[in-house]
Structure formats: structure tokens, C-alpha cells
Design a protein that fits this description.
The complex is a heterodimer.
Chain A: E1 6-10, H1 12-20, H2 25-31, E2 35-39, H3 41-49, H4 55-69, E3 73-77, H5 81-92, E4 96-98, E5 101-102, H6 108-119, E6 124-126, H7 130-137, H8 139-148, E7 154-156, H9 158-167, E8 173-174, H10 176-185, H11 196-209, H12 216-223
Parallel strand pairs in A: 1-2, 1-6, 2-3, 6-8
Antiparallel strand pairs in A: 4-5, 4-7
Chain B: E1 2-3, H1 28-44, H2 47-64, H3 67-82, H4 86-89, H5 92-113, H6 117-137, H7 145-159, H8 164-171, H9 175-183, H10 196-207
Helix pairs in contact in B: 1-2, 1-3, 1-5, 2-3, 2-7, 3-6, 3-7, 5-6, 7-8
Classes of the chains: A alpha/beta, B mainly alpha.
């Protein structure tokens, strides 16, 4: 009996973090454990097409392109992607108002990931980027944080919030750090033998510095984590 | 669902930054006020005021979705940085730059008064280029100063709630670069919503323990 297939939609933020910290092999490792990783055309452009033209980022872009070429990252599109992406952009970017102006919160790549989620029968969204995560997990927290940083009134449009929640129902997020922790629990770091704990914790630190969006308290949790 | 299919590259967000040289000058009064303040702080060589100004204008850029506010923030960050280095502050080159930028910003104010948006945009972007040119000639510490200033502005916008994609597009910086920059800040501390233990519980539940 085969292992049930699990699908993860990947945002560029997490893929860039994994590439920058030399942890893309975790994707291949987990692919062997029955997990498939998907990207949208917008994300592919963000992780390869553009950075490939900038020498400083070309190495990460080449590594990510190899993941695509090897079939570890699979490209995903649908006939309704464009329309669904627009609806998500509209709902997300008119959800929070500062004064009388709606705050533009997310863009094409992030919206595409959310739009494709349902049609891909995905289980989780791999995203390091904090705004997309907060919009799904706790938009009130996002509004509160924006409020503390703005002198003008910040308002959450509940109608848009409900529409966004409806469009993204079932989306569950994990960051590159959680993916790596999961891979650790499955033996990804076992090659490091007695150093595997050190390798994992060092990777978490590296991910934080690569923009994984980890709070200081979360770093402490990872340090004390036992599987 | 089509695996391996293509998706046309379309700009989905029609409310992006104002196009360079658009017909109607939006925020003319706000720009006038911010240019006036910038000229004052540059004239006074007020490093702290320049930094606070830059932080404020970066947020305005996010709310107004207008790259020209980013340019004003970039100029303010850059001048505040110049003043941190004694050898730069004492240099003839910086005095010349201040004089030239002040002259150009005065022309930018005139352009605003004349509702000449194209000229205003040309001047402020030109000022940023002047700062970039000088920073390139002032030594290792200050190279890429306008780029770093844009990164700071982007980080400020990010801390105000917008996503990486939004702020990178507006500030014209790369996601890699901003991600690395943010990794060395405490921005993420303010956005923690659940513990790692809870997150891992979800992951194991969804992907299998």
C-alpha cells in the first residue's frame, strides 16, 4: 500500500530561504517521503527568471531551477488561476484601511499561491512571508500591529475579511523552519550523525538570517525542541 | 488543474505606484510639504531629523503607493548616513552635493507649483542619482548608499504590514536582499501568532507524524 500523497504549495519567500541556506535538499528528501511541492508561474518567475539575471542571486536561482528541472518543484497552473488570483488580490488589498486608504498587503506571487491552493488539493502552504501568514492566521493581529505604527485610524473591513477567509478556506501555513524541523524528524539530518542536532539548529539560525520571519522566542523554542 | 502549464504574465494590481509622468499630480500638497522639510533638514545637517523623516515618508510611500516618496526617503537616509562619517561630513564633495541637491529640490518645488509632474519626477530621481554617484566615489563604507537607503525604506514599509512582494516592488529592491536585511532585525518579533510547538502540531497533523 503506497504512502498517501501530500501536496505543498510553495511561496517564493520560503524557497529563497531554503536556497540561501543550502537546504533545498530537504525538498528532495521529503519528496521521497510522499510529499509533492508545487509552485505557480508567478513564483517561478520570482525565484528563477529575475534573480538569474543578477549575479549576486544567480546561485540560488540556479539551485532552484535545478529543483524544477529535476521535478522536485512542479509547476502548477489552472484555467481559473487568473480570475481567482484577482479576487484574492482584491479582497486582501482592500481589507485593511489606514485612514481612508486601503493598504496594499500582498502581490501576485503570494495571491497566486492562495488561489491555486484549493484546486491543487493542497495540504499546506509553505510561506515565510509574514503578511500572507497573518492574513490567514490572524488578520486582527495584523491590523493591531499596523495600528500601533500609524497615527491614523486603522480599520479592518469585515466584509472583505470574510470574503478573503472564504477564498482561502482550508489554507494552513508552515514556514521553511517548520518544514526543516519536520524533515529533521524524518531523518533528513541523520547524515550528520552526532552533529545532527547542531546541523538542525544551525540551519534554523541561518533561516532566520535569510528572512524566515522567526521571532526571538521561536528561536529559543527550536533550540529546546525534542522530537 | 494543468501541471506544467503557462500563465500569462499580467500585472494584476492596477493600483501600483503612480506611473512616471502621469497626467494628474496627486498629493501635490503632501509632496510640497515633504520636499520643504527635506530641504530644511539637509540644510541643517540634522542627522536624526533626516532619519525620522525618512521613516515617516517610507510609510507614506506605502499608503500612497508612490515610488517618489521612496526617493525622498532614500535621499534623507543617505544624507543622514553621510553625516555619520566625519571624513565625509568634512569633505568638499559633500558640500557641493548639498548645494546641488538643494538647488534641484528648489526646482522640484517649483515644478509642483506649476503642476509639472514629469519635471518633478525627473528632478527627484535625478537627485537620487547624484547621491548614488557621490557615494560610489567616497569609499567602501558608503558604496551603494542609495540602494541601502531604499532597503531601509522597504524594511520600514514591511514592518508596517505590507508583504515582501509589495514593498520590494514599490522600493525596487530584491526579495533576497530584503529578506536578508530583515533577518537581522527584530521585525518578526511583533508578528508571532502561535508557538512553534503549535505550528509543529499542525504540520504533523497535516503531513503525517
Amino acid at each position: 500500500m503506497g504512502v498517501p500523497q501530500k501536496n505543498i504549495i510553495c511561496d517564493s519567500s520560503a524557497l529563497i530561504s531554503l536556497a540561501d541556506t543550502s537546504n533545498l535538499a530537504a525538498l528532495k528528501f521529503l519528496s521521497g517521503q510522499g510529499i509533492s511541492f508545487y509552485i505557480t508561474p508567478g513564483v517561478r518567475s520570482e525565484i528563477t527568471s529575475r534573480p538569474m539575471t543578477i549575479k549576486k542571486y544567480a546561485l540560488s536561482a540556479v539551485r532552484l531551477q535545478k529543483c524544477i528541472d529535476d521535478g522536485v518543484l512542479k509547476l502548477l497552473a489552472s484555467v481559473t488561476l487568473h480570475e481567482q488570483t484577482q479576487r484574492i488580490l482584491k479582497a486582501a488589498n482592500s481589507m485593511i484601511y489606514v485612514g481612508k486608504k486601503p493598504l496594499e498587503l500582498i502581490q501576485l506571487g503570494e495571491a497566486e499561491c492562495l488561489a491555486i491552493f484549493a484546486s491543487a488539493s493542497a495540504h499546506m502552504l509553505l510561506v515565510d512571508e509574514k503578511t500572507t501568514r497573518l492574513l490567514i492566521e490572524n488578520p486582527h493581529k495584523l491590523r493591531e500591529t499596523i495600528q500601533t505604527r500609524n497615527s491614523e485610524g486603522v480599520r479592518l473591513d469585515q466584509g472583505r475579511r470574510d470574503e478573503f477567509a472564504s477564498l482561502t478556506r482550508g489554507v494552513s501555513c508552515l514556514r521553511s523552519s517548520e518544514l526543516l524541523a519536520f524533515a529533521y524528524s524524518k531523518g533528513y539530518f541523520d547524515d550528520f550523525r552526532s552533529l545532527k542536532d547542531d546541523a538542525f539548529k544551525a540551519s534554523i539560525y541561518a533561516l532566520r538570517d535569510s528572512g524566515c520571519g522567526l521571532a526571538s522566542s521561536e528561536i529559543v523554542e527550536y533550540e529546546n525542541m525534542g522530537f | 488543474m494543468a501541471i506544467g502549464g503557462q500563465f500569462p504574465a499580467t500585472v494584476l494590481n492596477s493600483r501600483g505606484p503612480n506611473p512616471f509622468g502621469a497626467k494628474n499630480m496627486e498629493n501635490r500638497e503632501l509632496f510640497s510639504e515633504k520636499v520643504r522639510q527635506l530641504r530644511e533638514f539637509i540644510h541643517k545637517k540634522a542627522g536624526n531629523s533626516l532619519k525620522m523623516y525618512a521613516d515617516e515618508v517610507a510609510v507614506i510611500a506605502l499608503l500612497e503607493r508612490d515610488e517618489r516618496f521612496i526617493v525622498l526617503a532614500s535621499l534623507a537616509y543617505s544624507f543622514s548616513k553621510f553625516h555619520e562619517k566625519t571624513y565625509i561630513e568634512a569633505s568638499k564633495e559633500l558640500d557641493e552635493l548639498i548645494e546641488n541637491v538643494q538647488f534641484e529640490l528648489a526646482k522640484a518645488s517649483e515644478a509642483l507649483e506649476n503642476d509639472d509632474e514629469k519635471e518633478f519626477s525627473r528632478i527627484v530621481f535625478g537627485c537620487e542619482a547624484m547621491v548614488r554617484d557621490l557615494s560610489a566615489s567616497l569609499g567602501r563604507y558608503i558604496i551603494n548608499l542609495t540602494f541601502k537607503s531604499r532597503l531601509k525604506a522597504a524594511a520600514k514599509m514591511y514592518s508596517h504590514g505590507a508583504s515582501l512582494g509589495v514593498v520590494c516592488s514599490l522600493a525596487k529592491v530584491d526579495k533576497d536582499e530584503l529578506s536578508n536585511y530583515l533577518g537581522h532585525t527584530t521585525v518578526s518579533d511583533k508578528y508571532a501568532t502561535m508557538s512553534v510547538r503549535e505550528r509543529m502540531g499542525k504540520v504533523f497533523a497535516m503531513l503525517g507524524g
